[in-house]
Specification:
Layout lengths: L5 E2 L1 E7 L2 E7 L2 E5 L4 E7 L4 H8 L1 E6 L5 H7 L5 H5 L4 E3 L5 E3 L4 E13 L2 E13 L7 E3 L2 E2 L16
Antiparallel strand pairs: 1-11, 2-3, 2-6, 4-5, 5-10, 6-9, 7-8, 9-10, 11-12
The structure holds flavin mononucleotide.
Length: 160
């Protein structure tokens, strides 16, 4: 799978214990009508039981400039440390929406299926937002692609 390039998102959620979040690249657009996505979260992550209990999450799509955010949310550190100094706002579900990204979807969980040591959450998209035009953060070959590199990315011409 290292030969499969992906974008990177931070999945955030919230319950009475507070905000949680983790870096993911196992994120799939399942159907457009109705809008539905799937995420695969390891059972051992702090974020997973919160998504299960609350039944809500947001997927925040990261820009290349947000690599430090991806690195921070991939660490096994207490959730409050992940959010320290980070600008967020709230949408429909109450899950933290991280400012400065490419966009986000807010979701309500329809089903949670155990798959080995991961939980597959199939969810309805109930809200969305777009950020500014920026290069995406890309994960490839077990590392982040360098957007400025020789084989770096360039943005397609902007749409009207
Ligand atoms: C680029 C990248 C993608 C990742 N994708 C996933 C994923 O899709 N599912 C998952 O369970 N963990 C994934 N991880 C690992 C989690 O981010 C990591 O286990 C995190 O510490 C979990 O945080 P938590 O325990 O505070 O919830 C990924 C890590 C990186 C760096």
């Amino acid at each position: 799978m290292g030969r499969w390039p992906t974008g990177v998102a931070v999945v955030t959620s919230r319950d009475a214990s507070g905000d949680v979040g983790m870096t993911v690249n196992a994120l799939l657009s399942v159907t457009l009508d109705p809008p539905r996505v799937l995420i695969s979260l390891t059972e051992g992550a702090d974020t997973t039981p919160v998504v299960r209990r609350s039944g809500i999450f947001a997927a925040n799509f990261l820009s290349a400039a947000q690599r430090p955010v991806s690195e921070r949310f991939a660490k096994a550190i207490p959730p409050p440390e992940k959010f320290a100094g980070l600008a967020v706002h709230r949408g429909l579900t109450g899950a933290p929406l991280i400012d400065g990204g490419l966009g986000y979807v807010e979701c309500r969980v329809r089903s949670a299926t155990l798959a080995g040591d991961h939980v597959l959450f199939l969810a309805d998209v109930v809200g969305l937002g777009l950020g500014g035009d920026a290069l995406p953060l890309v994960f490839y070959h077990s590392t982040y692609a360098d957007p400025q590199g020789e084989h770096g990315l360039s943005l397609p011409p902007s749409h009207p």
